[in-house]
Amino acid sequence: MAVVLPRVGAYAMVKRMVDLVASSIALLALWPLFVAVAVAIRLDTKGPVLFRQVRVGRNRRVAAKALRRFENVVQLDVRREDWHGELFTMFKFRTMRSDAEASTGAVWAQEGDPRVTRVGRFLRDTRLDELPQLINVLRGEMSLIGPRPERPEFVRQFVHQIAGYDLRHVVTPGITGLSQVRQGYDRCLDDVRRKLCHDLEYIRSRSLWMDLSVALRTLGVMIGHVGAR
After folding, report:
1. Are the CB atoms for 180 and 207 separated by under 8 Å?
2. Are 134 and 27 in contact (CB under 8 A)?
3. Residue 129 and residue 123: Cα distance in Å, rounded?
4. What letter would DSSP give residue 99?
5. Cα dihedral 152, 132, 129, 43 in deg (nearest 10)
6. Per-residue pLDDT of the chain (229 residues; tens, 9 = 90+)
7. What percent of the chain is helix, strand and coil (3-state, nearest 5)?
8. DSSP H or E segment with residue 180
9. Are 110 and 119 spatial neighbours (Cβ–Cβ below 8 Å)?
């Protein structure tokens, strides 16, 4: 499957500049909130404050190939040993018990997930658990806006079950995205398919105006506690 990529050289440069400036300012301005959240987590349960998890990022090999050849249509080369993007460590505030997946491995979050702590529930409702990902944005592993990065265990599963799933890795993943403000968390494979449609729509039509629109809608989600689990 192929996806039409608009020529977005100038947009990509401006977007990265916005990511750098915004994440730097936010990290400096929000450090008291970081401290308060860290204290609350430690008082609530034992375990680390930050949760580190490997996620799949941008497939730079495919993106670079498209730029070199000035192609509008990219055909992804799916290899058996490939994770379909660069692996990186994503940071979040810990919202679950430290042993949440000790016996189950990687599983989807559930409605009213019993593994979520009391403080974790509030952090998820307000999306404050995502704030440490500003570090990933500063490092260039993520953007403020883009398709959410998924865990490699799920990516390898989805690329075989959902046609075109690997196409979402041609752009840098984001803290929030079009699929998040429209749909929320995944509950089943059909949810993932619907989210992919939103992600591909974003990739085809991405612009600074769309990024601003997603950012404003994300604030509404945070205030309204929509889609949290």
Report:
1. no
2. yes
3. 5
4. T
5. 120
6. 555 555 567 888 999 999 999 999 999 999 999 999 999 999 998 889 999 999 999 987 665 554 443 344 444 444 444 567 899 999 999 998 876 554 555 555 555 667 889 999 999 888 899 999 999 999 999 999 999 999 998 998 999 899 889 888 989 999 999 998 888 677 788 899 999 999 999 998 889 999 999 999 988 877 765 544 4
7. 50, 10, 35
8. helix 178-183
9. no
Phi/psi of residue 216, each to 5°? -65, -40
pTM of the prediction?
Answer: 0.81
CA distances, 48 to each of 31, 96, 104, 150, 167 (Å) = 18, 11, 20, 22, 34
SS3 134: helix
Distance CA 161, CA 71 (A): 27
Which tokens in the block code for residue 219? Answer: 């604030």
Contact in structure between 162 and 64 (CB atoms under 8 Å): no
DSSP of 61-78, one letter per residue? HHHHHHHHHT-SEEE---
Which structure tokens are listed for 108?
């989807």
At 98, the amino acid letter reads S
Buried b / exposed e along 127-137 (16+ C-beta atoms within 10 A): bbbbbbbbbbb
Radius of gyration of the chain (CA): 18
Both tokens assigned to 39? 């204290």
Task: Please answer whether residues 83 and 58 qualify as being in contact, where contact means their C-beta atoms are separated by less than 8 angstroms.
Answer: no
